[in-house]
């Protein structure tokens, strides 16, 4: 549970095979609103449901029944080692700067434990990943 001055948000996770169409629609809505995209569910289907490496980890934050943050740890193995790439991280603009990003990465660390987690962060997220414990490899 993420707490701030006025709200309690529920943070939870599901694996791709546990996500029904209702949750998928809410995830895509959050992603599209955050980035002003118009991806439809075929994007989710292609990237996650048809992933040849297996199911991905999805962490999302709820404010009542609305997904306000969604992030995926896309199963994308490296050298036959179970690996997850941080992708499609979205926090609705009105909920940004409340610690949600950090809480979701910390939850992923707990769930994925000793699995490989990697990313190619952009300029907006690079420092947040480093503060959360990820290291830069050159």
Summarize the structure.
This protein has helices at 21-35, 41-49, 100-112, 126-131, and strands spanning 2-3, 8-15, 57-63, 66-75, 83-91, 116-118. With 138 residues, it is of the alpha+beta class.
Describe this structure in words.
- The protein is 31% helix and 28% strand.
- The chain has four helices and six strands.
- The chain has a six-stranded mixed β-sheet.
- The radius of gyration is 14 Å and the shape is globular.
Secondary-structure-based class equals: alpha+beta
How many helices? The count is 4
Q: What is the overall shape?
A: globular
Low-confidence stretches: none
Helix-strand string: EEHHEEEHEH
Instruction: Tell me the fraction of residues in β-strands, as a range.
Output: 25-35%
Mean of residue pLDDT?
88
Major sheet: order of its strands? 1-2-3-4-5-6
Q: Radius of gyration over alpha carbons?
A: 14 Å
Please tally the β strands and state the result: 6
Ordered list of secondary-structure elements with their pairings:
Elements lengths: L1 E2 L4 E8 L5 H15 L5 H9 L7 E7 L2 E10 L7 E9 L8 H13 L3 E3 L7 H6 L7
Parallel strand pairs: 5-6
Antiparallel strand pairs: 1-2, 2-3, 3-4, 4-5
Summary tags:
alpha+beta, 138 residues, single chain, 6 strands, six-stranded mixed β-sheet, 4 helices
């Amino acid at each position: 549970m993420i707490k701030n001055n006025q709200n309690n948000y529920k943070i939870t996770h599901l694996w791709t095979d546990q996500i029904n169409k209702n949750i998928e629609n809410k995830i895509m809505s959050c992603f599209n609103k955050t980035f002003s995209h118009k991806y439809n569910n075929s994007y989710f289907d292609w990237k996650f449901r048809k992933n040849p490496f297996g199911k991905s980890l999805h962490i999302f934050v709820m404010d009542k029944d609305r997904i306000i943050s969604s992030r995926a740890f896309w199963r994308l193995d490296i050298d036959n080692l179970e690996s997850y790439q941080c992708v499609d991280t979205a926090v609705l603009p009105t909920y940004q700067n409340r610690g949600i990003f950090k809480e979701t990465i910390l939850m992923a660390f707990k769930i994925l434990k000793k699995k490989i987690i990697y990313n190619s962060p952009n300029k907006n997220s690079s420092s947040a990943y480093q503060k959360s414990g990820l290291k830069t490899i050159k």
